[in-house]
Amino acid sequence: MTDTLAKLPQGSTLPDVVIEYRDVRKQYGEFVALAGVNLEVRRGQVVCLIGPSGSGKSTLLRCTNGLETMSSGEVYFDGMPLSKDPRKNRLIRQRMGMVFQNFELFPHKTALGNIMMGPMTVLGLSEEKARTRAEALLAKVGLSEKASNYPANLSGGQQQRVAIARALAMEPEVMLFDEPTSALDPETIGEVLNVMKRLADDGMTMVVVTHEMTFARRVADHVVVFANGQIVEQGRPEQIFDAPQTTRTRDFLSHLGWDG
Amino acid sequence: MELNLSAVLDSWRFLLSGLGVTLLLAAGVTVLSLLAGTLLTLGRLYGPRWLSAIIVFYIDSMRAIPVLVVLVWVYFALPIATGLNLPPFWSALLSLSAHLAAYVAEVVRAGIQSVRPGQVRAGMALGMTRAQILRKIVMPQAVVRMLPAFGSLLSLAVKDTAIATVIAVPELMRRADAVAGQTYAPVEVFTTVMILYFLVIFPLTRGIDMIYRRVSFLGRS
After folding, report:
1. In this complex, do A108 and B125 lie within 8 Å of one another by their Cβ atoms?
2. Which residues form a coiled coil (chain A) (predicted)?
């Protein structure tokens, strides 16, 4: 271990660091969305990004797989820097799954067809192999009986579970969740969080932007608090929720009605 | 007024074969204009800037010129200007398609641009290429969303063929004109023609509406 570390050039990522953000900045005209963010995500870790709306956490998540371009800074995935040209990040995206706030299922495909899309078009799997993989994943998210339903005939929670399965079908090393329960009816939030919890238990590396503090507290290994495009505090969930060190974190949590 | 139905009954074969030419011309115009309109839109949206500019100019000018003028120009002026001498049917096919393609292009563009940007992001997140996203995610949804507008374009494709009468294409209107002239029965003949056009177009547009109502959910993201 020390040998490997010694061989690594100065400032390079540690072997178990999957994602590294270095001084990531993003500006939309005058508005500073990210004001220099440094963060590391280790293999198998569940990192929850919390903070008020517009604090930059979703922007950082979209910079992770190059869906958003950075104004400056670097993101490393498995030691490789993301390209400034979004078209060149296709190979990196294939290794990261992403789940969106509004599901973004393909309306012209069934639940099964949605999950088969990635493996067939991107990985070149045969229809038969893609189908087997998709069926297994639908079973995993508890929706086997909905295989031939179109998204229009699924509830929000069911759509989001299919979307998770669709991302998993690429067998990603990392899963990115962009407020996965914010567009859901309260009664279907639980089923989605349960699927995410099981994924975390299986050892998946996850970066989750969320407003679900109970989930962050129970499932996260590491919680990062954002405000005004910066990280104001980070640490173990018990530390963040029970003994927050900064006023910003305390304000945010009390705003949510969190009383520890 | 007494109706002289024999004027229509005696020449029904002649009129029906005119209807055949009308349908053939309309089918040709539909296929050609769909093809050309789609290519125009793809060039406009994804091509280099100079190509895009040319296409926008083409679409704008076609929409600003009456289809009758385009038809007459292709039949009478094109041969003198270029030496390309097309028979009436082909002149009509070319000019009607060129004209309708501009409208098709606008419909296709609106359809493509109405697909939510999040759908493209979802495809990108899977690692798909731009071409794959267009072909497998955007276009299938866009086609569904375009259906109602295609219904009206299809009815235009059929109706506009009547203009070809001025360059003597032997379609329904031309033949009706001939029969009406010979029999002195314009009321009977032209009423029949009206009914024939209606009988062709009404089921077409209604049919597309019905299909749309059944499949619209496939384009709703």
Report:
1. no
2. none
Closest CA of chain A from B104, distance in Å: 22
Residues 6 or more apart whose CB falls under 8 angstroms from that of B46 comprise: B130, B134
CB B75 within 8 A of CB B88: yes
Question: How many C-alpha atoms does B165 have within 13 Å on its Cβ side?
Answer: 13
Residue A9 is assigned to a structural domain of this protein: no
Residue B1 included in any domain: no
Distance CA A196, CA A191 (A): 9
CB A258 within 8 A of CB A241: yes
Q: Which residues of B touch A97 (CB under 8 A)?
A: 125
Residue owning tokens 């999040």: B118
As a whole number of angstroms, the distance between CA A165 and CA A151 comes to: 13
Query: Is B216 an 8 Å CB contact of chain A?
Result: no
In this structure, what DSSP letter does residue B171 have? S
CATH of the domain at A71: 3.40.50.300
For residue A107, which residues of chain B lie inside 8 Å, CB to CB? Answer: 141, 217-221
Number of domains, chain B: 1
Would you give the DSSP letter of residue B47? S
- ipTM of this complex prediction, to 2 decimal places: 0.88
Report the CATH number that the domain containing residue B39 is assigned in CATH. 1.10.3720.10
Interface check B137 vs A, CB under 8 A? yes
Whole-model pTM?
Answer: 0.87
Helices (H), B160-185: 172-183
User: What torsion, rounded to 10 degrees, do the Cα atoms A118, A120, A123, A126 define?
Assistant: 150
**pLDDT tens, A113-169?**
999 999 999 999 999 999 999 999 999 999 999 999 999 999 999 999 999 999 999
Residue A12, pLDDT above cutoff 60:
no
DSSP B4: -
Number of domains within chain A: 1
